[in-house]
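Write out the bound-state structure for flavin-adenine dinucleotide.
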Amino acid sequence: MDLTYTEEEDKFRAEARAWLAANVPVEPLPSGDTRDGFAAHLEWERRLFDARWSVVSWPREYGGRDASLWEWLIFEEEYYRAGAPQRVTQNGIFLLAPTVFEFGTQEQQDRILPKMASGEETWCQGWSEPDAGSDLAGISSRAARDEAAGGWRLRGQKTWTTRGAFCTHLFGLFRSDPEAERHRGLSYFLVPLDAPGVTVRGFGRLDGDEGFADVFFDDVFVPDHDVLGDLHEGWRVAMATTGSERGLTLRSPGRFMAAADRLVGLYRERGAAADPALRDDVVQAWMDAEAYQLQTLDVVTRLSDGARPGAESSLTKLFWSELDVRLHETALRLLGPGAELADEPWTKGYQFALSGPIYAGTNEIQRNVVAERVLGLPRK
Ligand SMILES: Cc1cc2nc3c(=O)[nH]c(=O)nc-3n(C[C@H](O)[C@H](O)[C@H](O)COP(=O)(O)OP(=O)(O)OC[C@H]3O[C@@H](n4cnc5c(N)ncnc54)[C@H](O)[C@@H]3O)c2cc1C
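---
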């Protein structure tokens, strides 16, 4: 692995850094998991798009810069380093888009990607149901064939849909062949949330923000051209989405490197006065973030050589989610008693870090995947 950046890459970094320095809002935006905050974040997304920074690794015709994966990583590092706003478009651009590039028809790519890049259409993930979370293949929402209309009728309920109350579209899994084996009868649908028969009901998270929604489908018509990938092959398509979610795009190392740097800053401010023994934890958090970056460089090297993200992405997910919890716990211990109740970024960050071992597939499930599919251990 060659860890030196090329002249081109250094130039790319300098350009990103300069643009972010001039454009990142000085005052932090309100939480993107509230209605007003989401709108404010979308304005920011449009500014990113206008300057071609919203989807740097995409082709130019869709609003990107044709940047390499290396440059994408550089941009992410600079983005978090600059303290730029959270990406409320993430479930579209980091989860759905790689899947559309891989499985979508040309017509779907041309229709969906430019509006996703500009933030005109925003996407949420409709997988979990009240009785199916970890056991995703156990979903019961149905898609029934409507031959006359040339499409499908969706019925059922999705839940825990992040920012579902604010997004315009949903990508979701539905059972299209009830007779088939559980993993074989699913299809991957793309659904506008203003379609007749859709009801979206937002609900609050533990921190009070309306970050989640229940989405109900009552005979919702979806035309054939809004099935992503082959019919009844939704499981295979969805596994490509989870590969991105767990392995690379959702949580790039820049996020944790920036948090670790802030933690070092906090220690310098408060550490000696707090518990000097916390120094080891601060150093460990910083080293873990660096280790995650190096591991990501290895993943990107392999992807650039044509490999596809596989079951190893579960190892990556375990690492970043547990690192995030430890890092924030150390920050709260540095801040001292009362920090858990304080209204400050570390506290909010800690609350969100606690959900990392749950979303994108719980860590227990990731350990099962690692045991069976990476280590080849028997199921029982
Ligand atoms: C912040 C956040 C955002 C989310 N956003 C979305 C979203 O946008 N779209 C969406 O569809 N979903 C979303 N989810 C839901 C998430 O995918 C589920 O919560 C997760 O898959 C777990 O499902 P569950 O909550 O039904 O728990 P369960 O599946 O009921 O699991 C309960 C417990 O049992 C354990 N368990 C279950 N099965 C096994 C097993 N076989 N072996 C060992 N342990 C097991 C689990 O690890 C867990 O600890 C989000 C969740 C969170 C916290």
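---
Residues 189 and 227 are 5 Å apart (CA to CA).
The chain has a mean pLDDT of 94.
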